[in-house]
Amino acid sequence: MKFNSFYSPFYILVFCVFMLSCTKNKSVPSQQDEATIDTINSFLELSKSDTIPAEKKLAYIDKSYQLAKKVNIDSVIFQTMNRKGELLNHYNPDIALPFLKEFEQVATQKKDTFYMGHSFLNLADYYSAKQQDSIAFSYFNKSKIQFEYKKDSSLVVYSLLMMSSILKNKDDYYDMEAVNTEVLNFINQTNRNYNFSCAYNNLGISLKETYDYKKSLGYYKKARQYAEDESTRIIIDNNIASVFILDKEYQKAIILLSKLELAKSEVVSEKIKSKILNNLGLAYFKVNDSRAVGYFLKALAIREDQNDEYGLIGSYIQLANYYKSKENNLLAKQYALKAYKNASKMKSIDERLDALQILVNSSSENESRAFSTVHFRLNDSISEVRQRNKNQFANIRYDFSNQKEQNQKLSTQKAETTLLLEKEKNSTLLMYFVILFLLGITALIINFLNNKSKKEKVRVSYDTETRISKKLHDELANDVYHAMTFAETQDLSTKYNKETLLRDLDNIYSRTRNISKENSFIDTGADFVPSLRDMMANYGNDEVNIIVNGLDVLQNTILETNKKITVYRILQELLVNMKKHSQCSLVVVTFKKMEKNIMIEYADNGIGAQTEQINIKSGLLNVENRINAIGGTLTFDNVIQKGFKVRIEFAV
Asked: Can you give the residue ranges of the Histidine kinase/HSP90-like ATPase domain (predicted)?
């Protein structure tokens, strides 16, 4: 069982690698497939040729599509489907829809974001050509979102500009402004000038229609700055002139339009020329100049010759207004009726309303009442329809923006989950390694600390033994030798000699006991304070009086064991130093508690010591080292012949 449990994951891994390698090899085209792909690419290029008739282009793209299905490589299939969709939209839209729907379905099933965008774009172009604006707008918005995922800014810009065109047709100028503002965020180096010119021109239109003439002129001037040819600049100049007329700057409009009128016919199309002439007639009409009618009639002649049905509506309305101002109601009514008829045919609501308003003012009472009723009914219905359209397009943009945000959140969450699982999977061995490494480091540290502790204990023991040996040699050896010599050389039967010897031996015993106490066990438990008091009292005698104040402070304060030992040893060192050097008769030790600190003040009335003498006295150096070890401070305050003072302070 152990053998099987160990090797089964290995065999599973080998099998997975084998399957993956098989899958990988399957996606690599064979030599025959490569030859077929070359043929497909040649057919695709032929379908793009401008010199081939439409029937042949469609035949070539059909052949490439059938070959792509045989090769069965998604990217090749999608490429041919996209091209076929474009050609059907252009040359045979009546049979395009089923294929475009198939393209959308396949791209969506394969979850190919790029070609989903293209399938949506082909459907958007189809519905736009069929004037099904709401469906077209929805598909343009879908394509924009997909191309935004793929960071294809040129196609994002195209989709947004087409959405802008639909919003313009629906007179939804506020959303039009918002869409073109978004366009500016996606324009890159590809067709940069053309796209900027389009976006700024659209912004000029939307601001003009919402009566912000100053901003409108600013955007038109930017559009003109990015215009790539003279024809585009003339179109934008004509738009600028229309703003001048609306803003009642008629002379500026006349000067600009007069220059545009002189433009060469190869630069300006007849359609644009008719707009220039019509605007120039309107500018003259606003300043009551008789030249107005001539320009209106010139524009009308061109539009009739070009069969410009929408342009004719404008000409008829301008002539109707002109003759109405001249109180020629007969001609005003004739032109207004023509405008109304064409506007109804073109489903142009605003122009129908303008024509009806002229008819109301230029007709007989009964006719005027009838036209007025139609005007009110049409105006009410169109207001409702326009509001519904605005809400519809706004909802489409909001719904897809919301969906985009949700998709981005889901994608982010999915990516984070996948990354988390991958990290967990890849980090298992690392975690084991880190644990083993930490265990090894911990073992080394513990071993190091144990060795260090042992060495420290040996060093402390050695220092203690050395200090005891030194004290025995310095303080007791000579006295013992003197006592031995005294006992050998003196007659101990006499009372004086006997008392002298006993006094010397008692002094030796007393010193031996003190050395023992200096290195004895310190009780840090409940009897610490009494033990400390006894230790200090032992250094007093008939010649030296030791006074202790405030010792209860330590009784009422919880101190760590190491701090109790430090306090004990420091005071012991100070009292030993006092015995040896101070020649004092009075010692005062005071304990105080100040907030979270303990302060101990030692003072005697001995001879004192200079700083350099303090530094070389090993006992006082031990005091300083001990207090530093618990994070405390030690302050010496001494003057020769005026005593010795020390202040010790440390945190509780």
From this structure: 564-650
Residue 260, helix vs strand vs coil: helix
Alpha-carbon distance values, 24 to 13, 17, 28, 67 (Å): 16, 10, 7, 22
Backbone angles phi, psi at 603, to 5 degrees: -150, 140
> Which of 321, 338, 363 is where one domain is finished?
363
- Partners of 600 in beta bridges: 591, 648
Residue 76 and residue 216: Cα distance in Å, rounded?
A: 46
- Residue 300, CA atoms < 13 Å, CB-side half-sphere: 18
Question: Which sign does the torsion angle of CA 63, 64, 68, 74 carry?
Answer: negative
Greatest alpha-carbon pair distance for the chain in Å reads 171
Task: Write the CA distances from 213 to 178, 197, 207, 539, integer angstroms.
Answer: 17, 18, 7, 105
- Residue 225 inside a domain? The answer is no
- State which of 363, 387, 409 marks the end of a domain: 363
| Count of structural domains, the chain | 2
Amino acid residing at 551: L
Q: Compute CA distances 342 → 274, 279, 312, 456, whole Å.
A: 17, 20, 8, 110
DSSP per position, 97-124: HHHHHHHHHHHHHHT-HHHHHHHHHHHH
In angstroms, the CA 466 to CA 455 distance is 16
285 within a domain of the structure (yes/no)? no
Beta-bridge partners for 645: 603, 637
pLDDT in tens, 484-510: 777 777 777 787 777 777 777 767 766
* Domain at 602, CATH number: 3.30.565.10
Q: How far, in Å, CA of 649 to CA of 652, rounded?
A: 10
| 32-47 pLDDT tens trace | 778 888 899 998 998 8
Instruction: Kindly give the pairing relationship between strand 586-594 and strand 545-549.
Output: parallel
Strands 644-651 and 633-638 turn out to be: antiparallel
Full-model pTM: 0.57
What is the full DSSP assignment across 373-429?
HHHHHHHHHHHHHHHHHHHHHHHHHHHHHHHHHHHHHHHHHHHHHHHHHHHHHHHHH
Chain centroid to CA 462: 64
**Mean pLDDT value across residues 515-519:** 59
CB proximity list for 63: less than 8 A, separation 6 or greater:
43
Task: Map tokens 């045979």 to a residue.
Answer: 92
Amino acid at 473: H
Q: Is residue 144 part of a domain?
A: no
Domain that residue 352 falls in: 309-363
**Which residue in this structure is represented by tokens 């990988």?**
24
39 in a domain, yes or no? no
- pLDDT tens for residues 78-116? 999 999 999 999 999 999 999 999 999 999 999 999 999
